[in-house]
Amino acid sequence: MQLFKGKPDFKEIDPVKLFYNVGSLLDIPTGTYVKGKYGENILNGGLGVLTAIAGRGNMFKSTLAHYMILSAADKVMQSGHDTYINTNDTEMNIHKDRLRHFSKQFESFKDRDIFKSNIWSIIDKTCHSGNEWFKMLKDFLKIEKIKNRKEYTFETPLIDSDGKQIRALFPSFGEIDSISEFETSNIEEIQNKNELGESGGNTIHMQLGLAKTRLLMELPGLCNAASHYMVLTAHIGAE
After folding, report:
1. CB 69 within 8 A of CB 171
2. Domain map of the chain by residue range?
3. What is the bridge-based pairing of β-strands 41-44 and 85-89?
4. CB-side exposure of 163: number of CA atoms within 13 Å?
């Protein structure tokens, strides 16, 4: 028998957080089995809404990030609808030709140019500062996807506890490669106004830390609401 009568009428979370399969060695450790509409058990595992890959240099963090994004996007596009991928190359070392070749390892991109088809866009610091990029991304997620939720909602093969098919917002994907090199426009202003060693530049790392903290605070709510799957890489030192 329930004791409390005036419990808060909270809006509750979705019954299942959707993961997109990327490959068994990554799907199984992250996954759980969920009932499908035909009574089968479906492994809901792989790429979650926010994934971070951290490690020392030259450990293929970027390659793993690209693989996970492309593999998940490949599964999504087999529904017959194009998704959208955006990469913020803060380290400024991505070559489109290499990634174009890499993308052709996946069925959906074998006969398509992933860049000319406007499926994947890549920016770096010569294109947009970190804050400019994030504002444009937020506008896309909030104004295009969340505001037009009904237009982009689809039925998944998974069912909830009432036996109804779970509905979800069509996913998009993104990368920050790497969060370690993420910079906002105010950092460039400080650098332009102060020569190396001048005291005016002493707060650069503090302000960088603040910007990254704010970014990491905003991403979970924003990405979950908009069904935007992000992979972040981060560099750690040897010690």
Report:
1. no
2. 49-235
3. unpaired
4. 2
Enter the DSSP assignment of 127.
T
Helices (H), the chain: 24-30, 61-77, 96-103, 130-139, 185-193, 204-226
Predicted TM-score (pTM) of the model is: 0.91
CA 86/CA 47 separation, integer angstroms:
16
CATH number of 49-235: 3.40.50
What are the tens digits of pLDDT across the range 112-152? 999 999 999 999 999 999 999 999 999 999 999 999 999 99
79 contacts: CB under 8 Å, gap ≥ 6: 154
User: How is residue 85 written in tokens?
Assistant: 């991928």
Rg of the chain in Å (alpha carbons): 20
For residue range 48-75, list pLDDT tens digits in order. Answer: 999 999 999 889 999 999 999 999 999 9
